[in-house]
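Researcher: Batch entry, complex prediction.
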Amino acid sequence: MKTDYSALHVRWMIRRDQDRVLEIEKDCFASPWTRGDFERAISTRNKIGMVVEELDEHQVLGFMIYELFGNRLNLARIAVEKRYRREGVGSAMIRKLLSKLGYFRRTMITAKLRESELEAQLFFKSFDFRAIGLLRGYFDGNGEDAYMMRYRLPSRCTRKREPAFICLDRDDWKAWEK
Ligand SMILES: CC(C)(COP(=O)(O)OP(=O)(O)OC[C@H]1O[C@@H](n2cnc3c(N)ncnc32)[C@H](O)[C@@H]1OP(=O)(O)O)[C@@H](O)C(=O)NCCC(=O)NCCS
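Model: Structure tokens for the complex:
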């Protein structure tokens, strides 16, 4: 059954959410972030954490962490507890992010996804994100490749052509991203 969007609330992540967020993190990822990783992320000036909460029970069902850059937002983490998936919870968070874009400020959202995260790739595709590049060996640990996915506000005047899909090694990608 689809969740009633009006029953979901996306709000800032606060210290009190930490245990629940760690629980969801462990439920979702083979190499979960630690409490320290979250604390470091949230205390960084350009990083913002948000949770999605079900209004009746105030139960946190998922969370996201995103970074602010000059012309784009980068989604560093998004997760929904397994038992609440395919009910529109992830969509509520992406809608919140999309509402932060504007033609005179940030016009893009990016996300780097593991090659094995097929479900997440399909999720982003459903919001018109496009895979624009492959970063070889990007992830620490198993050296898995990353797909860079990007959503761009539709151009209002000329039709901008999407750049060709690129494959880069880690250092080249870092330079390209700047
Ligand atoms: C990716 C994720 C956040 C999606 O959350 P969700 O709440 O299940 O997403 P939604 O219910 O809002 O899905 C919206 C649409 O995305 C697409 N989608 C989502 N999951 C999908 C899947 N497993 N297979 C195919 N399409 C999928 C569908 O089009 C879906 O619409 P529909 O259900 O009407 O068909 C969730 O699967 C997750 O937490 N994955 C593990 C963590 C992860 O890999 N994060 C990304 C890297 S940080």
